[in-house]
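Single-chain item
Fold in token form
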Amino acid sequence: MTQSVGIVTPQKIAFETPITLSSGVTLPRYDLMVETYGELNAARSNAILICHALSGHHHVAGKHREDDKAPGWWDTMIGPGKPIDTNRFFVIGVNNLGGCHGSTGPSTINPDTGQPFGSTFPLVLVRDWVETQVRLADHFGIRQFAAVVGGSLGGMQALRWTITHPERVRHALVIASAPKLTAQNIAFNDVARQAILTDPDFHGGDYYQHGVVPRRGLRLARMLGHITYLSDDGMGEKFGRMLRSGEYKYGFDVEFEIESYLRYQGDKFSDYFDANTYLLMTKALDYFDPGRFYGGDLVAALREAHAKFLVVSFTSDWRFSPERSREIVKALLDAKRDVTYAEIESAHGHDAFLMEDPPYHNIMRAYLNRIAAEVNA
């Protein structure tokens, strides 16, 4: 029987040892906001790290208060009796460095100036996140994760873990992801960034001091992104060409239901997400390329891995299409690594990895049962 993890409390963990990022910039200290679910076993072998996607955060499952309208962003996947079963695993959700949900990022106060970091906060790469996550594992006394799991940008982090710290991850679950972005994906990200960068309220990234938010830019960025997360069939089935009033108004106000939906999503996003964090996260996506330091050879990069892999894609996902997941699978096979691949029929587009889809959840459950048997033997 499945149930919720219940009421959960985030914890902010301070790291006082300096970290030098890929850009060459050194942060003297930083905080990471995390949530944990389940219990760490005596051998500390049953830990699972959840890596979030572009707009994600540490609040993965459960609720902070009884009256919260919605649980954590992957509550369908994580909890007692769910595929990532918190009766068997100790699960860690983390808000990445540069985030806007409690971890050190552009919107947090720079102790040297007493003002938000803003435009001075350095760019971070996926490899930088992994290094902070390694220190997080050390904080909990975890020598090896039973699994590192992520969808989309989170899947890229799982891949990076297996290459940079192969001895510290037993399984990697790479869901709706890619070995690197296509030119089209980089283009989408740049258009979204331009919407923010050209907003008059952006002020070069230091809008905090002006008491404003580049809301228009954030709204447009989210609306564009949201279109790419859905499939044409999914949007057609949900909205079609439905008019809000049933007739044409011959103007530029909201008329179609899909327009209303996108504007709602944009407005909601601009209320809680930081524009500088959005810029950082999309740039980390653009820069991700594990084959870069191996002469462009993904196979050579993945020969570093010791982990076993589950790679999952969704048929209607055109932002991170199944072809991109199959590139990862082929590279793993060529590198003679253990990999299981599943391509799930779905009409939900890229967002399918967040949905409660029985075939998808059955595959996840079966694979995680295998992991549980290994680490709890």
